[in-house]
Amino acid sequence: MSIRRDAPRTRAVYGNPSSPLAETTLNYNQVSLPATLTHQWNGSQLDIGYQYNADRQKTRVTLSDKSFAPPALPDSNQTYKSNHLNQYTTINDSVPEYDKRGNLIRHGEWSYVYEGSRVTGQVYSPWTPTICNNVYELMIFSIVSE
To answer: Residue 49 CB: number of other CB atoms within 10 A?
Structure first.
């Protein structure tokens, strides 16, 4: 498979490309943000929809089948509101907490830990004993994930 560096990926398959065992397709809106993500496998399908405000901040996420959502999500439709600092002010009915440097440290069932200026973080989830470790550059692009 060839990937154009100037074009976003729109399809990934597992198995034979003409008759895949599983397939994921991604569609983008007019400003190149993800609009829909569709996973198909074994005759099942999950559609995830994303909506954004004029500042390109995510305002809503919808799932076609809630059974695929993590248990801490209260429903299959998530709503987000943000402020002028590009921080979420509400996620559904939950009010996120930030440290004095503006880092998100807690919202709902999730908590986050940051270390130093490189922003290494650990994400804690109540429904799994696994700690998700990520290392981020200052531009907040994930560069390492375990």
So the answer is: 16
